[in-house]
Amino acid sequence: MIYYKTPDEIEAIRGACLLVSRTLGMLAQHVRPGVRTEELDRLADDFIRSHGGRPAFRGYKGFPASICTSVNDAVVHGIPGNYALQEGDIVSIDCGVEYQGFYGDSAYTFPVGTVTAEKRRLLTVTHQSLLLGIEQARLGRRIGDISHAIQHYVEKQGFSVVRELVGHGIGRQLHEEPEVPNFGKRGNGLRLLPGLVIAIEPMINAGRREVYTDADDWTVRTRDRQPSAHFEHTVAVGEQGPEVLTSFEFITQDQLLPV
Ligand code: MG
Ligand code: MG
């Protein structure tokens, strides 16, 4: 069942989203060569709890950490551990928070130091595809319009869209209906109405789209070992258009992508 939110509920979701966004902003200051992903996880966990939130991923279906850290060929769901980030890596950090009974969800893929031109282009294209998807999240459009906008742009740039994982409704739960695929047909799927809140999250591969889950039972990786990027915002369908509830504004200038 799809659960449409009241304006008050959207304000409450905005509170959770603000904490998610500030957590990603805090983490941005620590992403550099030599930092272990488990250190980022500890920083995130402390920050979220000290601001009255609960890390939504910890314990979710048994996930053992408070953020997902997915490096290079890892697409999503990477488990923080003793891996130390290296110059030239890209690392997706995905963060979900429960705050006063409501959920927010956002992800950003950071370059670690200087990365290759191709990785930088992957980040820029994936971020841009998120913005193009958000642009479709308005009254009268359908889920398929979001999906199509992302897929059409990404494939025109020569990259590929992961099919196995999709965006989702969010609010009272971390994952609600509907599914929000990053591929699909214009005019297909659920008609978008005010009060719908969704997480839009393109997962884009530099090479082929095929993925597999590695031996830790969580980390999703590209089959061809090429890098993958992931950006995510929580978005409300408003009367006046899309309302982006999470924000990358707390991510410091040198980590921001050129757009
Ligand atoms: Mg997420
Ligand atoms: Mg999500």
The appropriate CATH architecture is Alpha-Beta Complex
Helical coverage, percent range: 25-40%
Poorly predicted regions are none
The total tally of domains equals 1
Ligand types: magnesium ion
Task: Provide an overview of this structure.
This protein is 27% helix and 25% strand. By secondary structure, the protein is of the alpha+beta class. The protein has one domain (7-255): Alpha-Beta Complex (Creatine Amidinohydrolase), CATH 3.90.230. It has a 5-stranded antiparallel sheet. Strands 1, 2, 4 and 5 form a 4-stranded antiparallel sheet that branches. The protein has a 3-stranded antiparallel sheet with strand order 3-12-11, with no helix packed on it. Helix 1 (7-28) crosses helix 2 and helix 3 packs antiparallel against helix 4 (143-156). The radius of gyration is 17 Å and the shape is globular. The termini are far apart. 50% of the residues are buried. The model has no long low-confidence stretch (mean pLDDT 96). Bound molecules: magnesium ion (2 copies). Residues 94, 96, 105, 107, 201, 232 line the site of one magnesium ion.
SSE topology sketch:
Layout: H1 7-28, H2 37-50, E1 54-55, E2 67-71, E3 74-76, E4 90-99, E5 102-111, H3 117-135, H4 143-156, E6 160-161, E7 167-169, E8 176-180, E9 197-200, E10 203-205, E11 211-213, E12 220-222, E13 228-230, E14 233-238, E15 241-244
Antiparallel strand pairs: 1-4, 2-4, 3-12, 4-5, 6-10, 7-8, 7-9, 9-14, 10-13, 11-12, 14-15
Helix pairs in contact: 1-2, 3-4
Residues 105, 168, 199, 201, 232 line the site of one magnesium ion (MG).
